[in-house]
Amino acid sequence: MASIDIAAIHKSYGIHPVLHGIDLEIKDGEFVVLVGPSGCGKSTLLRMIAGLEAVTDGEIRIDGKRVNDLAPKDRDIAMVFQSYALYPHMSVAKNMSYSLRLRKTAKEKIASVVASAATKLGLDPLMERRPKALSGGQRQRVAMGRAIVREPKAFLFDEPLSNLDARLREQMRAEIKKLHQDLGATSIYVTHDQIEAMTLADRIVAMHGGIIQQVGSPLELYDNPANLFVAGFIGSPGMNFFEGRYLATGDTANFALTGGIVLPLGGTAKLADGSRATLGIRPEHVILGAEGPDTMMATVDLVEPTGFGIIVHLKLGPVAFKAFTLDRRFLGMHGEVAVKLPVPNLHFFNEEGRKV
Amino acid sequence: MASLAARNGGSRRDQRPLKKRLADASAPYLYSAPALILIVTVMLVPLVLGISYAFRDIQLLNPFSGGFIGLDHFKTLSQDQNFYRALKNTLWWTGWSVLLQFVFGLILALLLDKPFYGRAIVQALVFLPWAVPSFLAGLNWAWLFNPVVGPIPHWLFALGLMSEPYNILSDPQLSMWGPIIANVWWGIPFFAITLLAALQAIPRDLYEAASIDGAGPVQRFISITLPFLAPTIAITVLLRTVWISNFADLIIVMTNGGPADRSQIVASYIFTQAFKRLDFGYASAIALVLLVLLITYSMLIVVLRQWLLSKD
């Protein structure tokens, strides 16, 4: 186990820059999730930590030791691949013991370590099988078993659950979290799935366009997104955005939506009078069937029941947005409905997309 | 559905008129007849004719020949010292040609698998020998070995490997090596192409996983590359062995089996018997023996493969 420091990391392929100066400190035993849309550079960063990609500029330290020029095998890390990358001609037991056999570990030690990992992952009855005779979830477990037998300084996960179906993904997610609680090993986990990020991470690193957008605990990113990208990426269904103009009038302020509708805010935000801004609100914060002051009439476009709750697609003038409710009264809703956007739940983003 | 209906119908009395029943029963055979007839005429007729020659006395220059002589050719063959030498030479020729083609082909494929500047051009150049007609390759190499027009004897002499620049094709001890070298040059691309294709089908993340697991280049080659190449290696070596043991072009062109039959393989011996001495009957008998040997070899390989697969 070890801490991992990433300082001013740059990566370019030829003239194409991919990562523009990444700084990140990962504490010993921490579970960090790199999340972002495909092409944001998260996998590249992970592969650079593993030593599979060369570092263009900057420094990576594992346990305080610079590893930029070390071969992957000398970094003492383990990696779980999206494709599992199991050796197809080796049995499960051989797959798991490969790294130990390469290191000339004593046979008795290998047997006991592999057996205990197999028990931990429920692989005992499968040890003599070849990977092709396993299901996706079992292969995933073998890949994790291969990683844990070595007791490496850190675990790297590269979208390990992407090839599984939804049910299995949920189950494996919980198993990974439990495994982390048992082993307490430093882990870096790459995913594009924000649910995985939210559920697994001690800290989430949201990336976009080769730049870190925000680092923080899952709820920090959810409740207090630093910018429009994070606000839109974290959460499902995603946050609603309304573009418009901020109009201050003394103690209180209004927000004029593009399209003519004016929202009374009942307070002020740190925006200049008359500046263009974006207002954000999470669907579950939109109050349906509201009464009293500051309500607006919205048109119901579509109702999506998810079983757990109901997603209502609404239109406020030309602007589409969504509301999420647990109240089944709204299942058969059509026509118009009174909605309220409660001020404490509003997020304001300035013209550059930063939260104010 | 149709067959189900037919079976159900069969359990009761068939109500269809005889003509209709005949037509229905013969339909599948009529449909497949054109293909079957074509295959039989093109493949089986020549084969049966060729085999029948082995039991007849057929000499082009003897107008009275053509009669059935039973196993006489085979009796002669069992006493024929030239045939036994040709058989030994065939093993020598096939073994060294396949081994060297495979080793060099594998090295070449491994080199071409790594990206480098100008790889496309190098790949095209490497595969060039395969495109040269075999008899041209043979002539070319024969000239290269010839001290009058070719440079190789002079180079070997300059390196001190030869006491004087002479033609190895006329040396009874060495003449076999001339065609073998030409064959290796000509056949490397085949192995390089097929092995390269197999190499490129290996998922790259396996190598990455292995390098993280702590495997160096040699260990990665042994535990990933070789197991992935094994099926391709088995099938290409099997194919090439059969082709090369039958492949007399280079020997006919370069040494014509000489000097004194020292570089004669069974295939070139058949050619010599058939088209130089015009004894088709005897040539067919030798060909039949070669056919039996190659079929035995192929069956052995197939059995070996099945055994290896079942062991998995």
From TrEMBL, chain A:
<dbReference type="InterPro" id="IPR027417">
    <property type="entry name" value="P-loop_NTPase"/>
</dbReference>
<dbReference type="Pfam" id="PF17912">
    <property type="entry name" value="OB_MalK"/>
</dbReference>
<keyword id="KW-0547">Nucleotide-binding</keyword>
<dbReference type="InterPro" id="IPR003593">
    <property type="entry name" value="AAA+_ATPase"/>
</dbReference>
<keyword id="KW-0762">Sugar transport</keyword>
<dbReference type="InterPro" id="IPR008995">
    <property type="entry name" value="Mo/tungstate-bd_C_term_dom"/>
</dbReference>
<dbReference type="InterPro" id="IPR047641">
    <property type="entry name" value="ABC_transpr_MalK/UgpC-like"/>
</dbReference>
<comment type="similarity">
    <text>Belongs to the ABC transporter superfamily.</text>
</comment>
<dbReference type="Pfam" id="PF00005">
    <property type="entry name" value="ABC_tran"/>
</dbReference>
<dbReference type="InterPro" id="IPR003439">
    <property type="entry name" value="ABC_transporter-like_ATP-bd"/>
</dbReference>
<keyword id="KW-0067">ATP-binding</keyword>
<keyword id="KW-0813">Transport</keyword>
<feature type="domain" description="ABC transporter">
    <location>
        <begin position="4"/>
        <end position="234"/>
    </location>
</feature>
<keyword id="KW-0472">Membrane</keyword>
<keyword id="KW-1003">Cell membrane</keyword>
<dbReference type="InterPro" id="IPR012340">
    <property type="entry name" value="NA-bd_OB-fold"/>
</dbReference>
<dbReference type="InterPro" id="IPR015855">
    <property type="entry name" value="ABC_transpr_MalK-like"/>
</dbReference>
<keyword id="KW-0997">Cell inner membrane</keyword>
<dbReference type="InterPro" id="IPR040582">
    <property type="entry name" value="OB_MalK-like"/>
</dbReference>
<dbReference type="GO" id="GO:0005524">
    <property type="term" value="F:ATP binding"/>
</dbReference>
<dbReference type="InterPro" id="IPR017871">
    <property type="entry name" value="ABC_transporter-like_CS"/>
</dbReference>
<protein>
    <submittedName>
        <fullName>Multiple sugar transport system ATP-binding protein</fullName>
    </submittedName>
</protein>
From TrEMBL, chain B:
<protein>
    <submittedName>
        <fullName>Multiple sugar transport system permease protein</fullName>
    </submittedName>
</protein>
<keyword id="KW-0813">Transport</keyword>
<dbReference type="InterPro" id="IPR050809">
    <property type="entry name" value="UgpAE/MalFG_permease"/>
</dbReference>
<keyword id="KW-1133">Transmembrane helix</keyword>
<keyword id="KW-0762">Sugar transport</keyword>
<dbReference type="Pfam" id="PF00528">
    <property type="entry name" value="BPD_transp_1"/>
</dbReference>
<dbReference type="InterPro" id="IPR000515">
    <property type="entry name" value="MetI-like"/>
</dbReference>
<feature type="transmembrane region" description="Helical">
    <location>
        <begin position="176"/>
        <end position="199"/>
    </location>
</feature>
<keyword id="KW-1003">Cell membrane</keyword>
<dbReference type="InterPro" id="IPR035906">
    <property type="entry name" value="MetI-like_sf"/>
</dbReference>
<keyword id="KW-0812">Transmembrane</keyword>
<feature type="transmembrane region" description="Helical">
    <location>
        <begin position="124"/>
        <end position="145"/>
    </location>
</feature>
<feature type="transmembrane region" description="Helical">
    <location>
        <begin position="29"/>
        <end position="55"/>
    </location>
</feature>
<feature type="transmembrane region" description="Helical">
    <location>
        <begin position="220"/>
        <end position="239"/>
    </location>
</feature>
<feature type="domain" description="ABC transmembrane type-1">
    <location>
        <begin position="87"/>
        <end position="301"/>
    </location>
</feature>
<comment type="similarity">
    <text>Belongs to the binding-protein-dependent transport system permease family.</text>
</comment>
<feature type="transmembrane region" description="Helical">
    <location>
        <begin position="91"/>
        <end position="112"/>
    </location>
</feature>
<feature type="transmembrane region" description="Helical">
    <location>
        <begin position="280"/>
        <end position="304"/>
    </location>
</feature>
<keyword id="KW-0472">Membrane</keyword>
